[in-house]
Design brief:
This protein is of the alpha+beta class. It is built from 7 helices and 19 strands.
Length: 292
């Protein structure tokens, strides 16, 4: 099943180039009072929601996907977890390029030593909202990544069981300002985490370690690889993350980017594609104090 959020936070079932408006399925969600839960209620109740979608889909309005403003399929993640230098070829390109390593190639370490890092939840947008670049005097880069959405509470999970905790997969864009500051600081401006175009349930993905992924920038291919080249696969990343903090429904893990990262500037158009998920078109602008 492929689920998207669009327009005024409506819920859609994606079928080819059409979307069934199944927002009514959200009526099965529990009512919450303050203090609100620290997880995403839709993802926490995804089984109930998808069951209701199955019941009402045939009678739901059918809309055209083309031109639809797509939001992040996860509205309220508790945290966004990111994996640094998780492709060997990307690690090599960072080590050899002073613009990428900020003049400190000797400080680059493997993901086993670096661990994971967190991005601000306020950096999250959907493809229809676009990227608004900050600090245009510095280099900003695109990074395409497989994004994993956690489906249930996970603590000290063994990699053998880890995929059972996955609610679904998305395409992720990890936008980066180059410099010497900590990764989480340079990668957390508003709109610097793009998630979409929809959530794809695991039954449609199969092995997340065998997916082609790519980016075209203004029509030119820049990144083109496969998730089989990840140093730590999805299950290993869940194991690592859950060994340091509890993962909750709606938490997002972006799994690292392959080689081929390159600068982006206002006016650019990014097309990010991952096999079995689809493609998302994202426009690049300048951050003007609010989303584009």
């Amino acid at each position: 099943m492929r689920l998207c959020r669009f327009g005024d936070s409506r819920l859609g079932l994606v079928e080819g180039r059409t979307v069934r408006d199944v927002t009514a399925a959200l009526d099965v969600l529990p009512a919450y009072r303050y203090p609100l839960p620290g997880y995403d209620p839709l993802i926490a109740n995804l089984d109930k929601v998808t069951a209701r979608i199955t019941e009402i889909a045939s009678g739901s309005p059918v809309l055209n996907l083309d031109g639809m403003k797509l939001l992040s399929p996860v509205a309220n993640p508790g945290k966004i977890v990111a994996a640094p230098v998780n492709y060997a070829a990307h690690m090599s390109e960072v080590a050899s390029d002073s613009q990428l390593n900020a003049g400190n190639p000797g400080h680059l370490v493997t993901i086993h030593k670096a661990g994971l890092f967190l991005k601000a939840n306020s950096s999250l947008v959907g493809p229809g909202e676009g990227i608004g670049l900050w600090h245009l005097e510095r280099r900003n880069d695109h990074e395409v990544e497989l994004a994993v959405v956690i489906g249930r509470r996970a603590n000290n999970v063994n990699r053998k069981d880890a995929l059972r905790y996955v609610a679904g997969y998305c395409i992720g864009l990890d936008i980066s300002i180059r410099g010497q500051e900590d990764r989480s600081f340079r990668k957390s401006p508003d709109s610097y985490t793009v998630l979409g175009p929809w959530l794809v349930t695991p039954d449609e993905i199969g092995d997340p370690g065998q997916l082609d992924l790519s980016i075209r920038l203004n029509g030119q291919i820049k990144q083109d690889s496969n998730t089989k080249h990840m140093t730590l696969g999805v299950a290993q990343l869940i194991e690592m993350a859950s060994s340091f903090y509890t993962l909750y429904p709606g938490d997002i893990i972006i799994t690292g980017t392959p080689e081929g990262v390159s600068p982006i500037v206002p006016g650019d158009t990014i097309v990010a594609t991952i096999e079995r998920i689809g493609s998302m078109h994202v426009k690049v602008g300048e951050f003007l104090g609010e989303f584009q």
